[in-house]
């Protein structure tokens, strides 16, 4: 049935949608009452256009996508509809001219594949022009991008007519995108007549098209309140009605102004990117458009798509570079994830002019700024300091010549090129450390390790602040201490205590020291001999902790570091619930730090919308953690400065924490992942360990001749 929310799942959708409404609705303009800070053509805040709704998560143009866009983003969000015509001249919202990938039509009409010429290009597939609206009512929308979850496809979403977008969702604004006018004409259909007719029944705020002839044909027939926007495609493609390339048309914006009030361009028209994915200087297209009296909108934003390394995998940083760079601002952005530009516009613009810092959460680096540079290198640490880390970490390992160093793994094969070096023959299996082969830090001297090239770690494997924080801390953590003492004759605890003492950390208060370990005996020894803050690392995902285990931890630790899934358990990357672990730890007098928060979308639950700011906000505001351990310090520091913190009931919806299990409930019963066994509960026996063995002297081996030093260009220089 046309216009239904979805077939067979309306009630479950309604329940879940009402849960979403628990988020506070209402857009909060951070600069309300002041002169406009925006460098848009009108001086208004940039528009947020939800492409097919919240299509980064749900099937494009589906009920869930449109509803969620309005519930989780700015209430001013515009809903985008790619208009296609059916055989009986009904306009429908569909992300592609073909039905193949975005619907299940191949299962419904397996013999319906056709071959057509579209704008001069032979094209095969299933096309809406071959089906009437009744026939397409049997077809369901599905996720067309294979890197996104397909579990919502089982809800059997109906295809919407254009008029349904207004009647079903009450959107404040609708954007219709129209392409392939000539193709419809070849099939005796008139997109022009349809758009003119629908604009008399439905309030349309924007109509965009990449075809000059189409926009000029409707310019005098639609409401003057409807903005006509010329859409630029790839610069090398020829526009079908003028046969000029889009790159050529870009040089004649005065001509575009004769029939359009704005232009829509791929984002790389504004900020070009090199072949190796680094930003080039911005072009003049935004200022050129504004000089011509044209608004300019940027397209192709998606949090889970590849974008320049300059943004450190942070989509919010990318949006800010388009709307708040101090030089220009686009007039709107078209996004698959409208929550992120909502944050950019409402809470994070203008921060460079503000000294605001909310203090919470404590930001602890993870191997330095290891999301940008190889773990524990000088560049990673320097960037972490520059980006505003409150605490700099050092995972302590030991070399063969008994020098304590900062290295993310005791196995050099994990984060260096040692397996390709002259030391590859040193590979061995040490069962006490790992089941597979390794070349370990204690196999090489410090001089030998410095000849190796570091490697940046991948997330699947395991905008700097204006001023540095007033107090920085040094966080050292120790693993394998018992092995080092017993097998290597080296007391890592003694070495660290002596090193810190020699550096003067015992006699000053400006810099503080935190010692972290998953071995309670290590922390007990530090508590006996120092006054450092001690952090107990729980190195497995747990559901809770017994009161007696919490009492045991409190005897030797001031804080606990817990895996992020111990806060929000996941099933197939969907958050299923929120545990009580954080509150129980805090009630026991322990601060709580969540690890490891990363910007790369592949490391996040679907519930965070591929947005690291949503992730941080959910752990801080939703779960109440005291600090975060992160590869990307700059993202966390910017979060601490956002303009929408501590607003109580006035907090905008897009800055509310995610609702644990909210998305999971939206999955139709046939697609629900099987329940996972419950995570374990921490007990006394998990916490208490035998005392560390005494270190026994091990004879040193004869010196090896050093290979040629590894001389590397920045940013790959290595030192700890």
From TrEMBL:
It is an enzyme of class 3 (hydrolase). PROSITE patterns: GP_PDE. Residues 46-345, 361-640 form the GP-PDE domain. Keywords: Glycerol metabolism, Hydrolase, Signal. Residues 1-30 form the signal peptide. Its EC number is 3.1.4.46. It holds the Pfam family GDPD. Gene3D superfamilies: Phosphatidylinositol (PI) phosphodiesterase (3.20.20.190). The keyword RNA-binding does not apply. GO terms for molecular function: glycerophosphodiester phosphodiesterase activity. InterPro entries: GP_PDE_dom, PLC-like_Pdiesterase_TIM-brl. It catalyses: a sn-glycero-3-phosphodiester + H2O = an alcohol + sn-glycerol 3-phosphate + H(+). CDD domains: GDPD_SHV3_repeat_1 (cd08603). GO terms for biological process: glycerol metabolic process; lipid metabolic process. Belongs to the glycerophosphoryl diester phosphodiesterase family. This is glycerophosphodiester phosphodiesterase.
């Amino acid at each position: 049935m046309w216009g239904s929310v979805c077939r067979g799942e309306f009630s479950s959708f309604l329940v879940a949608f009402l849960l979403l409404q628990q988020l506070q609705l209402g857009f909060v303009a951070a600069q309300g009452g002041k002169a406009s800070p925006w460098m848009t053509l009108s001086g208004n805040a940039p528009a947020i256009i939800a492409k097919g709704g919240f299509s980064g998560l749900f099937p494009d143009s589906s009920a869930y996508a449109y509803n969620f866009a309005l519930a989780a983003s700015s209430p001013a969000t515009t809903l985008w509809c790619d208009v296609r015509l059916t055989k009986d001249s009904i306009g429908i919202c569909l992300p592609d001219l073909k039905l193949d990938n975005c619907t299940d039509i191949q299962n419904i009409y397996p013999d319906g594949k056709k071959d057509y010429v579209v704008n001069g290009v032979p094209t095969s597939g299933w096309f809406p022009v071959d089906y009437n609206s009744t026939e397409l009512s049997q077809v369901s929308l599905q996720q067309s991008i294979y890197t996104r979850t397909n579990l919502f496809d089982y809800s059997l979403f109906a295809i919407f007519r254009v008029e349904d977008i207004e009647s079903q969702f009450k959107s404040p604004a609708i954007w219709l995108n129209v392409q392939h006018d000539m193709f419809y004409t070849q099939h005796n259909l008139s997109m022009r007549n349809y758009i003119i007719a629908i604009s008399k029944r439905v309030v349309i705020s924007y109509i965009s098209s990449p075809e000059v002839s189409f926009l000029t044909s409707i310019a005098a027939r639609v409401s003057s309140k409807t903005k006509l926007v010329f859409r630029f495609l790839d610069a090398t493609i020829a526009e079908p009605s003028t046969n000029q390339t889009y790159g050529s048309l870009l040089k004649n914006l005065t001509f575009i102004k004769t029939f359009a009030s704005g232009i829509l361009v791929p984002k790389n028209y504004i900020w070009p990117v090199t072949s190796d994915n680094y930003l080039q200087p911005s072009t003049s297209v935004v200022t050129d458009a504004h000089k011509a009296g044209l608004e300019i909108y940027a397209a192709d934003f998606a949090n889970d798509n590849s974008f320049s390394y300059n943004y450190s995998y942070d989509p919010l940083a990318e949006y800010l570079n388009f709307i708040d760079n101090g030089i220009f601002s686009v007039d709107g952005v078209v996004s698959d994830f409208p929550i992120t530009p909502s944050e950019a516009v409402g809470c994070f613009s203008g921060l460079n002019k503000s000294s605001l810092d909310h203090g919470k959460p404590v930001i602890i680096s993870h191997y330095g700024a290891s999301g940008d540079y190889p773990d524990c290198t000088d560049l990673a640490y320097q960037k972490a300091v520059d980006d505003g880390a409150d605490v700099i970490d050092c995972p302590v390992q030991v070399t063969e010549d008994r020098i304590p160093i900062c290295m993310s793994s005791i196995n050099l094969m994990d984060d260096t090129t040692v397996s390709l070096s002259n030391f590859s023959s040193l590979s061995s299996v040490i069962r006490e450390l790992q089941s597979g082969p390794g070349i370990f830090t204690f196999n090489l001297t410090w001089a030998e390790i410095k000849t190796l090239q570091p490697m940046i770690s991948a997330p699947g494997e395991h905008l700097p602040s204006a001023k540095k924080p007033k107090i920085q801390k040094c966080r050292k953590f120790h693993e394998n201490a018992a092995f080092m003492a017993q097998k290597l004759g080296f007391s890592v605890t003694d070495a660290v205590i002596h090193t810190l003492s020699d550096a003067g950390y015992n006699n000053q208060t400006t810099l503080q020291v935190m010692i972290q370990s998953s071995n309670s005996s290590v922390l007990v020894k530090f508590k006996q001999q120092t006054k450092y803050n001690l952090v107990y690392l729980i190195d497995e995902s747990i559901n809770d902790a017994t009161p007696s285990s919490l009492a045991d931890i409190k005897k030797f630790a001031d804080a606990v570091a817990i895996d992020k899934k111990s806060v929000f358990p996941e099933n197939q990357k969907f958050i299923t619930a929120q545990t009580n672990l954080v509150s129980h730890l805090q009630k026991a007098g322990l601060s709580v730090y969540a690890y490891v928060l990363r910007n790369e979308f592949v490391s996040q639950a679907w519930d965070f919308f591929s947005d690291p700011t949503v992730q941080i906000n959910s752990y801080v505001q939703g779960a109440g953690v005291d600090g975060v351990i992160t590869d990307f310090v700059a993202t966390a520091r910017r979060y601490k400065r956002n303009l929408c913190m501590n607003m109580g009931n006035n907090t905008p919806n897009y800055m509310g924490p995610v609702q644990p299990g909210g998305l999971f409930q939206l999955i139709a019963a046939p697609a629900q992942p099987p329940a996972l066994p419950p995570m374990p509960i921490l007990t006394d026996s998990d916490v208490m360990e035998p005392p560390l063995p005494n270190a026994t002297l091990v004879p040193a081996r004869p010196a090896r001749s050093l290979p040629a030093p590894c001389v590397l260009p920045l940013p790959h220089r290595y030192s700890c």
